[in-house]
Amino acid sequence: MSSSSAAPAINKPHWMLCLGLECMRRGEGYNETISSTTTIMDSLLSPIPEKEREERSKHWTGPMTAMVDMVHGEKDFYMPKRFLEIQDEVRGLEIREDDLFIVSYPKAGTTWSQEMVWQLREGMNLEGGRVAIPKRVPFIEVECLVQRGPGAPDKSVEGFKTLPSPRIGKTHLRSPYLPKDLLSTKGKVIYVTRNPKDVCVSFYHHEKLLNNHQYTGSFEKFAELFLEGKVAYGSYWEHLKYGLEIRQLKNVLFITYEDMKKDIKTEMRRVLEFMEWPELSQKKLDALADHLSFSSCKVNPALNFNPDGDELDEKNPKEFIRKGVVGDWKNMFSTELSEAFDAKMKSYPELMDFTMQYDA
């Protein structure tokens, strides 16, 4: 076969993706356009090699950890093996016209965004906000991130299906593993991102925190795996690339953790406009901004909860919210590691026009 005849086969997935994006801009049949490519990609998930599994077991050492038996797929997608049990259910999730999905890579400010969005939808309801955020804005695929056992979340996808409208859901998945109808004309998406250096530091502490993960390796090793896309959800950079691809769509709002830190009221107004929710008075915006401040979130048990459900005391300070700052990576990164992250960013031409904010 000549090189000229081979080229169309190589370029076809990209061509189909571009056509799909154009269809979404016009409100046409995006799902039919990409259905064949997503089915093919789904089938490519496979277990990691045994040698890699053994190496992971040296760093994730908890008896209940779900982070050793992993599967991987194209574009550095990497998940616990239990994801195979729910991937078809997630892909087939029926999207309603008034659904809202908060999509982000882990530790990008998702919990903070969940609280902001839920409060805005409710017109500020601090009393209702006493209910733990996972119950108000469910984590759709959380059941696959832990081993089965007492107290472990079960049937999280099924639970989301049964919620009354309007639903708000949280997910860290990216295409093609999201619900196949999510980026059609149904529903809306708020995509949240944060600079990768701070994400890596926060993710490291998160993996150490959870009984169901129990990472006991060094930060340097975790950062190495993060760069390789060998942490849950895979490559940060592939996830961001996906977010930038969809940000131009009419049913997607793209926000950053750093912009929320700089001016939370402006970001709240953007969400209200995007969702076509009623405007809030300046008094309510001020009160909600105070509610969403780090000092308030830190002492709010509905947000800063112990994810393992253990009783908290001074010897067991398992708090979900840690520092909430921009630039904490400087306390953990060596010069060489920072340069490695910069080089990784530069290796993605699609990300070069995006201004990353590494400092407050």
Automatic annotation (TrEMBL):
Judging by the UniProt lineage, the source's domain of life is Eukaryota
Instruction: Check the record and name the SUPFAM superfamilies matching this protein.
Output: P-loop containing nucleoside triphosphate hydrolases
Pfam families annotated for this entry?
Answer: Sulfotransfer_1
What are the protein's UniProt keywords?
Transferase
An example of a GO molecular function for this protein is: sulfotransferase activity
Q: Which residues form the Sulfotransferase domain?
A: 98-346
Query: Which family does the entry's similarity section mention?
Result: Belongs to the sulfotransferase 1 family.
Write down what this protein is called: Sulfotransferase 1A1
- Which organism encodes this protein? Caligus rogercresseyi (Sea louse)
Which taxonomic lineage is given here?
Answer: Eukaryota, Metazoa, Ecdysozoa, Arthropoda, Crustacea
